[in-house]
Design brief:
Layout lengths: L2 E5 L6 H16 L3 E6 L4 H4 L6 E3 L9 H4 L14 H5 L4 H4 L7 E5 L3 H11 L3 E4 L10 H11 L2 H11 L9 H5 L7 E4 L17 E4 L25 E6 L8 H14 L8 E6 L2 H10 L12 E4 L4 H5 L2 E6 L3 H9 L4 E3 L6 H11 L2 E3 L7 H13 L1 H18 L7 H7 L5
Parallel strand pairs: 1-2, 1-4, 2-3, 4-5, 5-6, 6-7, 8-9, 8-11, 9-10, 11-12, 12-13
Helix pairs in contact: 6-7, 6-8, 10-15
Amino acid sequence: MSKVTIWPDIYREQGHWLPCVTLAKSLKDAGYTVEFMGIPDTQSIVTPYKATFKTILSDIYPTGYSSENKLQPLDQRWKPAHLLPITRGALDSVFTGAGATNLLVSGYFTALETLLIKYKYGTPFVIVTTYLRHPNDLPSLHAKTKLLYMPKALSRAIIDAVVPAAQKGMSIDDFVKPLDLQPEIIPCAKEFDFTDKDWKHRPNVKYVEPMIVRATLDGTPLPPDPTNIPPGKKLIFGTSGSMVQDYEFRARQFFLNLIAMMQTQGMDAYYLVLAVGDKLDAQLRVELGVDKTNLFPPNVAWYPWVSQLDVMSTADVVFMHGGLATIKESIWEQVPIVIVPHGKDQMDNALRIRRTGVGVVSEITELAPLDLRRLLTEATTSTWVRRNLAKMQALFATADNKPAAQKDSVLTIKTVVMP
């Protein structure tokens, strides 16, 4: 039986990890042995789903790193501190010995790390890209950018440490080529992506099932979501995703604007649930006097993190930043979308939402309460939006409801490692 190790991201980014939980379930049901690996802070994302987890790099990224961020330089999202340790054998326990993995399923954002594993251990890999990248934004380019960013002596040492002795001095371009040769899977229906003639991926890139519905790997029930939504209320869900710290000020203002909207006349019938992230949760609790003076309205609640699928199942509308994972979950539950892009790929996703008609798009981020009320009305009353949501959900369901062994992701992985 083949063993597959899944490594979606170095850091605690739920939007990259959670789709891979669904992939792990499909692989397990198809007969593979599946294990996640990651730094300590990422374990709690997958353990509720009864997934096996191998802790790595804990001496570099100890428990609490995701919120403390103590490595220099501060606030830089990606750091090279783990690369030389990988070349020196920090992952030997995963990729050598009797229990070595047969295949690495690695996230787009761990492309460089995957490359080091490929050269050092010869382990085949498949890339899973959990966002809709531009066809020219190849995994090799992502790895190359990181190598060029760091001091030349460091990138040279990293490359020379893993390539065969006769190939020391290899150029960065030659070093990253293997990343464009192995399969890459994108967990989303192709119909949601752009269809322009110049938006064409290489033949080894395949759109697969959206990987939305999650279940425990051992078949036991998932714990209930802790949110407490009053009965009889129309539910509004607001989120800026798992990478909220990358645009903290904008996300913070977005949440405050939504809270202000709930204080306007006529909003008593609605209840707002916000998922704000750990850092903003702490800030807002102080600023708005939660547990003390309670300066926020009674029809608002927020949490550091929620089970979005559980919340979406009863939501009337979702106000979001525009991350792909949240968009897919909204489509799956046919919840009208209001997208207020914060940055990164969210601008392109706003265009995708407009093109497919599954929601409404705000052109501005500084929204007054009445602006948000207008968007709320537009999204929830549009029969066109609901019709398009139903059409896109049907496409998602057709792919996601296939038997495990027939899913496109599993069939792609089968081409790399024999079952």
